[in-house]
Amino acid sequence: MSEERATSFGAAADQYEAARPDYPFEAVAWMLENLPTGARRIADVGAGTGKLTRVLADAPDAEVIAIDPDAAMLAKLRESVPGVPTFLGTAERMPVPDASLDAVVLGQAWHWVDPAAASAEVGRAVRPGGTLGLIWNLRDDSEPWVMRLTEIMRTSPAEGMFEGDGPTVGEPFSALEEERWQWVRPMTRAQLHRMADSRSFFITAADDVRRSIHADMDALFDELDLRGEQTIGLPYVTRAFRAVRSR
Predict the structure, then answer these.
(1) Domain locations in the chain as residue ranges
(2) How many CB atoms lie within 10 A of CB 227?
(3) CATH number of 3-139+156-184+235-244
(4) What is the pLDDT of residues 55-73, one digit of tens each?
(5) If you average pLDDT over residues 203-228, what whole number do you get?
């Protein structure tokens, strides 16, 4: 998997924050429902601009930190979710003491990591019985126009992972449990373009490829008669996973 793509998002931090969807609260709550009552220490790893962090920060008794390898993304996170401590790091190398967390969660990020090394490192950082939570917002390509949009924008590593067997975790975690939520996000033509601009393929593509993607998107939107401030419902499936650290 391209390290260039994995570390490209800081160049489009504003686009990412504006265009990417938030996570349904109920999906995040499900990932963490087995945590103990009282103060709950949670690290959002691969936190980006804070799409998942802001939901975690609203949870009762949550003590949240954000970890990401990209300083530009963390700078945007501090604007979006003020007051949450931020640290440079990765799922394979987290700047936290042993057994210092109740949960580690990753949103749109596990497909960028080495699952064996990341599982071992998260296992070091969480207490016995702690939780590893993974979550993705995925466009629902069962809708024909959405499938065409995905073909134009190119498949992402996350989408490629779900075309296979999905995410995997290793020791010291139990098998993953999964739940799904379906919902629709109204989006304008301009917002859909910004979403494409926030994707790793687009960020790292040559200028002529970027122009071609936008032209093909515009042709699709013309067919859909999507103009100006008109919106179209973009269907999503949120897929959430959780696993427990063995005691």
Answers:
(1) 3-139+156-184+235-244
(2) 10
(3) 3.40.50.150
(4) 999 888 899 999 999 998 8
(5) 94
Q: What is the pLDDT of residue 205?
A: 85
Q: How many CA atoms lie within 13 A of 184 on its CB side?
A: 7
Provide the 3-class DSSP secondary structure of residue 175.
coil
Name the 3-class secondary structure at 1.
coil
φ and ψ at residue 165, rounded to 5 degrees: -90, 0
The token pair at 126 is 């969480």
**Is pLDDT of 11 > 50?**
no
Percent of the chain with pLDDT over 90: 73
The pair of three-digit structure tokens given for residue 111, joined into one six-digit string: 């497909």
- Cα 162–chain centre separation: 14
Q: What is the rounded CA–CA span in Å between residue 7 and residue 3?
A: 6
Is the Cβ–Cβ distance between 243 and 131 less than 8 Å?
A: yes
Q: How many residues does the chain have?
A: 247
Q: What is the pTM of this model?
A: 0.89
